[in-house]
Write a structure and sequence with these properties.
By secondary structure, the protein is α+β, with helices and mostly antiparallel strands. The protein has two domains: 68 residues, VC0802-like; 65 residues, ACT domain (Alpha-Beta Plaits), CATH 3.30.70. Helix content is 34%, strand content 38%.
Length: 143
Amino acid sequence: MKVEQISIFIENKSGRLAEITRILGEAGINIRALSLADTSDFGILRLIVNEVEKAKAVLKGKGFTVSKTEVVAVEVPDQPGGLSTILQALDRDNTNVEYMYAFVERCGGNAVIIFRFDETDKAIATLTANNFNILAGERLYSM
């Protein structure tokens, strides 16, 4: 139920993002979702890719600092208040969302949101108990 995400530390300068995407593309790695948070000096690029270990190795081989974390992919009803129902269930159980971002494709009629929680297993239990659909990594990598 957990999805592997890679995070890449990058300098905030022209061409660095293009370089990362070029390296991954040349290695045949497909980016399925991404989030970029930056400051004036550096950024953290978070990616869901189809080949996590290969992506880590290729980027590290090019001198990038790369780490792997676990996130959760949740189907969100694509309607007004859809995300709110999920966040309210998590709030009732005192589960903190550290960050989230949208997945590239929809799952049927639903949107897919990637979540990072402070207590991942607790969040999964809460989401499952409230009948929210959690997507397996294998499904995301091939969507």
